[in-house]
């Protein structure tokens, strides 16, 4: 079990719905760990962010990517495909967080190496609880590889 409570946890939230962005940020603020959330509103922006961070000597890659599937321009499944081809130095956990509950999306996400697939609850309180539980699991319970650069 690895605790990341000593450091600031960086999260890349790939989400185009302003309401879901707000709910996610509010849930993360409630955590006992300090987080910084970067938002990309489509897949292109997410890949540019990760590529820029990967090349940077001063900025690190995020500790977790929360990825919606239904995005403008480049969708979440295309992002997963591109991440499989990227030469990132450490495997970044990617959690699909989407409104889709279709079997095809679930299967394809896992085939493209998503670490988890969660369907967004419609109730804001349930959504907040899910994000808090997700962060607790990934940053306080799961053993993750060190983020070397």
Describe what this molecule looks like in 3D.
The protein is an alpha/beta fold. The protein is built from 5 helices and 5 strands. Strands 2-1-3-4-5 form a 5-stranded parallel sheet, sandwiched between helices. α4 links the parallel β4 and β5.
What is the topology?
Blueprint: E1 9-14, H1 18-29, E2 35-40, H2 43-55, E3 64-67, H3 76-85, E4 94-98, H4 103-111, E5 116-119, H5 124-141
Parallel strand pairs: 1-2, 1-3, 3-4, 4-5
Oligomer: single chain
Strand segment tally: 5
Strand-residue fraction? 15-25%
* Helix and strand pattern: EHEHEHEHEH
Structural classification? alpha/beta
Coarse shape: globular
* Sequence of strands across the biggest β-sheet: 2-1-3-4-5
Distance between the termini: 22 Å
Q: What does the average pLDDT come to? A: 87
Please compute the radius of gyration using only Cα atoms.
14 Å
Helices, by number, come to 5
Low-confidence stretches: 1-5
Major sheet summary line: 5 strands, parallel
Level of helix content? 40-55%
Descriptive keywords:
149 residues, alpha/beta, 42% helix, disordered N terminus
Short description:
The protein is built from five helices and five strands.
